[in-house]
Specification:
The complex is a heterodimer of chains A (143) and B (1185). In chain A, 38% of the residues lie in helices and 22% in strands. By secondary structure, chain A is α+β, with helices and mostly antiparallel strands. Chain A has one domain: Beta-Lactamase (2-Layer Sandwich). In chain A, strands 2-1-5-4-3 form a five-stranded antiparallel β-sheet, with helices on both faces. In chain A, helix 3 runs antiparallel to helix 4. Chain B has 25 helices and 55 strands. Chain B has seven domains: 178 residues, Response regulator (Rossmann fold); 188 residues, no CATH class; 96 residues, no CATH class; 143 residues, Sandwich (Immunoglobulin-like), CATH 2.60.40.10; 150 residues, Immunoglobulin-like (Sandwich); 146 residues, Immunoglobulins (Immunoglobulin-like); 113 residues, Immunoglobulins (Immunoglobulin-like), CATH 2.60.40. In chain B, strand 7 and strand 8 form a beta hairpin. Chain B starts with 5 loop residues before the first helix and ends in a 22-residue tail after the last strand. Helices cover 30% and strands 28% of the residues of chain B. Chain B is of the alpha+beta class and 1185 residues long. In chain B, helix 12 runs antiparallel to helix 13, helix 13 runs antiparallel to helix 14 and helix 19 packs antiparallel against helix 20. The chains are: A alpha+beta (143), B alpha+beta (1185). At the A-B interface, strand 2, helix 1, helix 2 and strand 3 of A face helix 14, helix 18 and helix 20 of B.
């Protein structure tokens, strides 16, 4: 189950962060998302370590914490998407698919002429769409 | 890692035992320790002690005769230690050589010793070696005795070693041989032991799985003893996997203890495996192994009451692996590149950081703590169990505990029930302060992350650490860490995280009673851009949930505190914070302060420059992000000119706000309302007046709220207003501080106050253009018309009109001392004032194009003047800037200065143009061969014939608009140059200075001759002394007072050459019509060669002539040939003589005489001259009009 998704801007500032859990505390998830930015930075700054990951938007598993897995995605405009899930056995394809749909939703949201780039995404439609994508995560690989 | 026993942590080392000759033991053991591989030695002084070494074995036999109540465990606790410290792999008996060679009694003793040793080691398979210690010479021992010894000891010849401690040369070698023999024996021993145990496994008749684990472990340890790492690893892994199988199968022990034992064994095996993997550099395998280990045991929580044991164990796994990783990464720098896609679960680079493991170790330890706390609170300890707990000790098996029961001398180990064990564990757990451990772990992680610049992770660890510190009551440490974390969150705009951190910081400052910090943190929290609920509900920290309501609560709380509404103080939490009467709290808000959110002051002058004394408008805009409206009691606006400071008081509040400094009485304005609404600019416009010139800058705006709090905001210009970091990242409408659209973009917090208009006239009187070379005087006059001039300074600047410098370093003029084209030479004071009379404190600084001179005090109406002396070296227009700076007041305090500027463009002209011309004597023409070539070559230098008298005419033309006076013209030769030619009339002065009106030319004739055979001839420099004509004052001017300007021009070098032929014409100076005269043409051959000359003489209408028209003649060397013609003039007047032309065949040079020298005046009739006309005095100079 996805517990948290986030969009992080250029200055590593949160643009959108939404947790989908009743049981767990969102603050901890915020910390996890924030910490995972270190991994994104590291991957981006040391591309040679990543090797085949070069030039790919999907960053893969960022780091494992005891009960969560954190995945990352970096758009061409250097906006980061972070996904925190409690499923310890996740298929890469599912995550890729999720990010692809999430990216599409993000693009639609920032294409809104009233959206100021670099500002928080407040669109309710975006939030709803993200919820839908999150709920369908893992069920359909076809997307 | 430190809690593991030593024998587990370090790789095992071979143990050898030495018996006999105790004096040599230390020598041998020292050498063995440093041998490769090292050998530990167990030294026994003599053979009788052997019994003590081995007799304890019977006590700890794994199969005791008396059945123990304890369940046999998997490993025995002391097995490894025994093999490392007690049970040698090899026993070496040392005998002095005289025992062999001495009397039979000694030999008998030796034999019996050998027998007793053999008896002891028999059955244990311990290797045996004999060392014979000789003192003097090896040869003493007979071969027979050696063989007898070998037979007696039942050892191979190579295991009988001879050692001579006195033979220094060979001692090292023999010790080395001994060490290698011993290690060989030890390897054999451990291999045999290992094989023996391995056979037991392979027979598969072992009845319990536990024994297989034990055997595998033993095989691995034996392999380690002989440094066979792959085998050791293999069997450790085997043991580990076998152990994994018995989880849930075995029922030997009560459930909790069973799991504890298995986990302890697994921990040891895992430790060994990880160590071996890391030492062999297989970091990736080690990390993968750890992950597998962690995942395998993570779920084995066990019974609920023993959960804390599981978490503690987990924490230890992470800690130990982290430490192993850290030590190994120190030795092997830079691990292999991460292979991310080797398996379905790729490793992540994070798993290579020790900090990751420390962080998780801390996490599990905190899990353990919370469970343990629960367990402690639940376990109502009764005395019966307490007594049991006191007697619990670790049993002989690893991971097992037993009750020690003392019955008289008998000590019995009794098994424990699970309840007893849990009680024991809980009571053990109580003894440790886990939070200190957690802090230590987090600190390790924090520092480790920080050192590799992973700031967010380290912040997270730091935050957890700070929370632990906070819980422990160590406020100082907590606050310090939190402050650094807060700055990161501020920078990146993680408002929810910042909110949480600030909540802790606020509580920290509340606890230590730091009221200012408390207010600052509270205000920052209240001003954070949190509008809606962020969804954080549980574990909301100390700050409460991050939402607008909570912000308002915080806001109210802090304003209650600072307003000192003690009567209303219902808030229990802030009871310990009180502001006493009269105490004030000033918060500073600068450009980088986080409190800019709380209050931001933007100040803008409406005008960029103002006249002194005039008033200008200033707009002060305040913005607050606090959630509720703040009522300001007063605003104090401070400027860099303190007399402009003013106060704005709130008209709604009756009481007057005291001025902060209280000494100076400032202007006070009353504003109808000073309430600062959330997110709305409060704009106030007032006028400001100043008399002082210079910059007027608003420094700060101090808002006074209540009786105690004042917020001092650094004034910011709207034009350069930095946006608030947190609020720009959020989704909030940006508003502008000023409504005026121009001021928003260009408004500045400072304005320039102009200086008062100067009341001093500055005149620059310059008469006409300056002439190059002369010292040009520019009179400067200061006339005071209303101001006194104090501490005046006159600055003079010379600037090239066309731009660029006044000098060019490339030009190297001999007559200019430096390369300045225009130079300020000096400033002469007013009439009668000498430089020496100037006061010593007067400044006078003259540079090439810059001058600074101080001006004496000039009273109103007075005047002062000086003269600038400027010299032009080149014709160049320059701009002269003169500026006077002065103070109209005499007092030192009022340093206001007034400036007057004047400029004047002055042209610099060349006064005199010099040029020159060479002439040959009249009617004489040398053939200069170089002249013929000249057409083809670019050499334009003049050529002069050698040994001939040449005429040099130098003309000086006045090219100014002014009349000039000439004193002299001369040709000067450089002193050092060799005199190569003679110049007559070189340096004679004119009797009276000649007046040269504009456009007029002055000519002087010099005669030059040289007999030096030198191709280049330097003639010297023309020197012309002149000055301006003074007009009517010319008469009274004496020569002594006037300075003459010297203009110099170097004459170009000339070529000298010997002309081969010289043609000269001779004819009378005049002729009379009808009167015949003779015209001679003299051709002189200067060479040593015969010259063939073709010549022709043309007809002339004015003359009748007799002689050859054309001919070819030969002129002999060094002789001359004269052609003579008889001419009868026919016409009067100036007439051309018949045209003569000739060609030198040898030089193929034609000669054409010039027209001017080839004419003669014909009188109509014979003239009558007076005899006195012919005079001896020569006309030296001719002035042509």
């Amino acid at each position: 189950m996805i517990v948290c998704v986030a969009v992080v801007g250029h200055q590593n500032n949160p643009l959108f962060i939404q947790s989908f859990t009743e049981a767990d505390d969102a603050l901890k998830l915020h910390h996890i998302v924030h910490c995972s930015l270190d991994v994104v930075d590291e991957r981006v700054n040391n591309p040679k370590k990543s090797g085949p990951m070069l030039n790919e938007t999907f960053l893969g598993l960022l780091y494992p914490i005891e009960n969560y897995k954190v995945y990352g995605y970096l758009t061409n405009t250097k906006v980061k998407f972070i996904l925190v899930t409690t499923d310890l056995d996740v298929k890469d394809a599912d995550v890729r698919n999720f990010f692809r749909r999430f990216h599409a939703a993000y693009v639609d949201a920032v294409s809104n002429p009233f959206h100021v780039p670099g500002k928080k995404i407040t669109s309710r439609t975006f939030a709803e769409r993200v919820s839908t994508i999150v709920k369908s995560f893992g069920f359909s690989s076809a997307g | 890692m430190e809690e593991y026993p030593e024998e587990l942590r370090t790789p095992p080392v071979t143990l050898a035992s030495l018996v006999g000759c105790p004096e040599l033991h230390s020598l041998i053991s020292t050498h063995f320790m440093s041998a490769q591989p090292p050998i530990n030695t167990l030294a026994l002084p003599d053979v009788s002690k052997i019994i003590y070494l081995f007799n304890n074995k019977t006590d700890s036999d794994p199969t005791p005769t008396a059945p123990s109540p304890l369940v046999p465990g998997i490993f025995k606790r002391d097995w490894l230690l025994k093999h490392r410290t007690k049970l040698p792999a090899i026993l070496a008996a040392l005998f002095p050589s005289h025992h062999l060679t001495g009397d039979p009694a000694q030999w008998q003793q030796l034999c019996s010793d050998l027998d007793s040793i053999k008896a002891v080691i028999r059955g244990r398979n311990i290797k045996f070696a004999v060392v014979v210690v000789v003192n003097d010479n090896v040869d003493e021992i007979s071969e027979d005795r050696m063989i007898a010894l070998r037979k007696r000891a039942e050892v191979d010849a190579k295991y009988v070693i001879v050692l001579n401690p006195n033979d220094a040369a060979n001692l090292k070698l023999s010790l080395h041989r001994m060490a290698s023999t011993f290690s060989e024996l030890a390897v054999a021993y451990y291999r045999e032991e290992g094989r023996r145990v391995k056979q037991r496994i392979e027979k598969k008749n072992v009845n319990s799985v536990e024994l297989i684990v034990r055997y595998c472990f033993k095989v691995a340890v034996y392999a380690e003893f002989r440094s066979d790492w792959p085998e050791a690893l293999k069997f450790y892994e085997e043991a580990y996997h076998t152990l994994r199988e018995i989880v849930g199968v075995t029922t030997r022990l009560p459930a909790v203890q069973r799991l504890v034992e298995i986990k302890t064994i697994a921990e040891q095996l895992h430790f060994k495996i990880s160590t071996l993997l890391l030492h062999s550099g297989k970091v990736t395998e080690a990390v993968a192994w750890f992950r597998q280990h962690k995942n395998a045991y993570k779920r084995l929580v066990g019974a609920p009451e023993g959960t804390f044991l599981h978490w503690e164990w987990m924490s230890r796994q992470f800690l130990v692996f982290g430490e192993l990783l850290e030590t190994s990464s120190k030795t092997t720098q830079g691990f292999a590149p991460i292979i991310l896609s080797t398996s379905s679960k790729p490793l992540c680079e994070w798993e290579y950081y020790p900090a990751y493991y420390y962080q998780l170790a801390a996490h599990y330890l905190s899990e353990k703590r919370s469970v343990l706390e629960l367990a402690i609170s639940m376990s109502e300890t009764n005395n019966e169990i307490d007594s049991v707990v006191d007697s619990v000790v670790p049993s002989v098996y690893v991971g097992q505990f037993a009750r020690l029961l003392e019955q008289g001398d008998n000590v019995d180990m009794l098994p424990l029930t699970d309840e007893e064990y849990i009680c024991y564990a809980v009571s053990e757990g109580k003894r440790f302060r886990d939070s200190l451990e957690i802090i230590a772990l987090l600190k390790k992680a924090y520092e480790s992350y920080s050192s590799i610049k992973i700031m967010r992770m380290s912040s997270f660890c730091g935050f957890q650490m700070a929370k632990e510190y906070f819980a422990e009551g160590d406020i100082g440490n907590a606050k310090q860490i939190l402050d650094t974390i807060a700055s990161l969150y501020r920078k990146e705009g993680w408002v929810t995280l910042l909110w949480d951190v600030l909540g802790y910081l606020r509580e920290c400052s509340r606890k230590v009673g730091a009221i200012k910090d408390f207010v600052e943190y509270s205000l920052e929290m209240a001003a954070l851009p949190i509008s809606s609920d962020t969804g954080v509900r549980r574990d909301i920290g100390l700050a409460g949930p991050a939402n607008l309501l909570q912000r308002e609560i915080v806001h109210n709380e802090v304003f209650e505190l600072v307003n000192g509404d003690s009567g209303l103080a219902t808030n229990e939490r802030i009871n310990n914070l009180k502001i006493t009467e009269g105490e004030s709290l000033q918060l500073e808000v600068d450009l980088v302060s986080p409190l800019r959110l709380v209050m931001l002051a933007s100040v803008s002058f409406h005008e960029q420059t103002v006249k002194p004394g005039a008033s200008t408008l200033i707009t002060i805009s305040l913005l607050s992000r606090l959630p509720l409206t703040v009522d300001i009691d007063g605003l104090e606006i401070q400027f860099n000119q303190s007399n402009c400071n003013f106060l704005i008081t709130n008209g709604q509040k009756s009481q007057l706000v005291e001025v902060s400094d209280g000494i100076q009485q400032h202007r006070t304005e009353i504003a109808p309302s000073l309430s600062l609404q959330s997110n709305k600019w409060l704009r106030l416009t007032y006028d400001v007046q100043t008399d002082k010139s210079g910059k007027l800058e608003c420094l700060s705006v101090i808002a006074k709220i209540g009786s105690h709090l004042s917020i001092c905001c650094r004034a910011e210009s709207p034009a350069s207003l930095d946006s608030l970091p947190l609020w720009t990242l959020g989704d909030f409408v940006q508003t502008v501080p000023i409504k005026d659209p121009i001021l928003v973009l260009s408004g500045q917090k400072s304005t320039q106050v102009e200086e008062p208009d100067p009341l001093v006239d500055l005149h620059l009187g310059a008469s006409g253009p300056a002439l190059v070379g002369e010292v040009f005087l520019v009179p400067v006059t200061l006339v005071s018309k209303g101001h006194d001039v104090y501490s005046g300074e006159l600055k003079i600047n010379l600037v090239d009109v066309k731009g660029g410098g006044l000098f060019s370093p490339r030009d190297n003029e001999p007559h200019a001392m430096d390369s300045h084209h225009v130079q300020l030479l000096g400033i002469s004071g007013p009439e009668g004032e000498d430089d020496s009379q100037l006061d010593s404190d007067k400044i006078k600084k003259i540079q090439q194009s810059f001058g600074l001179i101080s001006v004496p005090i000039i009273k109103n109406g007075d005047s002062w003047s000086c003269k600038l002396e400027i010299k032009w070296h080149r014709p160049k227009p320059i701009m002269l800037y003169v500026s006077l700076g002065y103070s109209p007041y005499s007092d030192e305090l009022n340093t206001q200065t007034v400036h007057v500027h004047k400029n004047l463009q002055i042209e610099g002209h060349n006064a005199i143009v010099l040029y020159h011309q060479y002439l040959m004597p009249f009617r004489q023409d040398p053939l200069l061969l170089s002249k013929n070539k000249k057409a083809s070559e670019s050499d334009h230098s003049e050529s002069l014939p050698l040994n001939q008298k040449n005429v040099l005419v130098v003309s000086a033309k006045n090219c100014t608009e002014l009349p000039l006076r000439l004193k002299s013209m001369s040709i000067e030769v450089e002193d050092n140059a060799e005199r190569t030619c003679s110049i007559q009339h070189g340096s004679e002065e004119l009797a009276n200075p000649a007046l040269l009106v504009p456009g007029e030319e002055f000519k002087k004739v010099f005669s030059v001759s040289s007999n030096k055979n030198k191709s280049k001839l330097s003639l010297g420099t023309v020197c012309l002394r002149w000055r301006r004509d003074l007009g009517v004052e010319e008469q009274c001017a004496t020569t002594s007072t006037l300075s003459w300007v010297v203009t110099k021009q170097k004459l170009p070098n000339v070529n000298l050459e010997l002309p081969p032929l010289i043609v000269s014409f001779e004819c009378p100076p005049y002729a009379v019509v009808g009167d015949p005269f003779t015209y001679y043409i003299r051709i002189s051959n200067q060479t040593q060669l015969l010259q063939e000359i073709k010549y022709s003489l043309g007809d002339a209408q004015s003359f009748v002539l007799s002689g050859y028209h054309n001919d070819t003649i030969y002129v002999l060397p060094k002789s001359e040939h004269i052609l003579s013609y008889k001419l009868v003039p026919l016409v009067s007047g100036m007439q051309q003589l018949p045209k003569f032309s000739m060609t030198s065949v040898r030089y193929s040079a034609a000669y054409q005489p010039s027209n001017s020298s080839n004419s003669v005046f014909i009188f109509p009739s014979k003239p009558h001259f007076k005899a006195t006309v012919s005079t001896n005095s020569r006309v030296e100079s001719v002035v042509n009009l």
